[in-house]
Specification:
single chain; alpha+beta; OB fold (Dihydrolipoamide Acetyltransferase, E2P); five-stranded mixed beta barrel; two-stranded antiparallel sheet; 8 strands; 13% helix
């Protein structure tokens, strides 16, 4: 009977020694190791030129903005024409000129300097044909249909 505690001890020591998360901070509610918080004064990834297509997007290990302040500010005309922005997350400024109703609820139009683009997602309360309020949204540029050259914005949460 004295061998049972010794055998148990010999089994537990190697298991504990093989843990890969030794020294890694843990969240008690989540068993997955978490990284230490960023140091104060840490710098966010640099903002890239959206027309160049560098530093953005999910492919090729490029940075994907997850917050509006990380995304580049582009004009509606750029969103409509620049192929390098297709599938990218950006900030776009303009004014809401029309909102859909019924089956088109959640679809609205953003206008800037004579250029307009359809936006799908949360409609601003100030949206309307006589709106003069300028707003900036965080959105992803997508084709209107698969293979189409026409573009729309999918509004992302701010």
């Amino acid at each position: 009977m004295r061998r049972c505690p010794l055998v148990l001890f010999l089994i537990l020591i190697p298991i504990h020694a093989c843990r890969s998360s030794a020294g890694t901070a843990r969240n008690p509610g989540n068993p997955t190791p978490v990284a230490d918080p960023a140091e104060p004064g840490a710098v966010a990834p640099p903002e890239a030129d959206p027309a160049a297509g560098a530093g953005m997007g999910a492919g090729e290990g490029r940075f994907v903005p997850v917050r509006p302040d990380q995304a580049p500010l582009v004009h509606i005309q750029e969103a409509l024409e620049a192929d390098s922005l297709l599938g990218r997350r950006v900030r776009v400024s303009g004014r809401c000129t029309a909102a859909g109703a019924g089956r088109r609820a959640g679809s609205w139009t953003l206008e800037e300097a004579g250029s307009t683009i359809e936006v799908r997602g949360l409609v601003p309360s100030s949206c309307g044909a006589s709106s003069t309020v300028a707003l900036t949204i965080f959105a992803q540029i997508e084709p209107t249909t698969s293979g189409s050259s026409d573009r729309l914005l999918l509004r992302l949460p701010d």
